[in-house]
Predict the 3D structure of the following.
Amino acid sequence: MKKYEIGYILKASLDEAARKAKIEKINSIFANNGCKVVNVNETFGLRELAYPIKKETKGYYVFVKVEADNVALKEFNRLTKFDNNVLRTLVVVDHE
């Protein structure tokens, strides 16, 4: 399995409990497909967006390092594409 770094932006209007549940649900996509979540980083947190995304001006940033395969990544992309609480995602290969 390859190492990836995944960043996604959640809606800022989610309360603390809903945001934690959403992060757990998204990270469970990898765990359910036999992949390993190495690190979850929420230090960026709530930020002003450079430009509006889906009419939102603020977002909550989450970065996750995983060891995953293509099946898990396709499932992640499929599920987050239709989730209205996820504004944007980015998946890059982690070369570290």
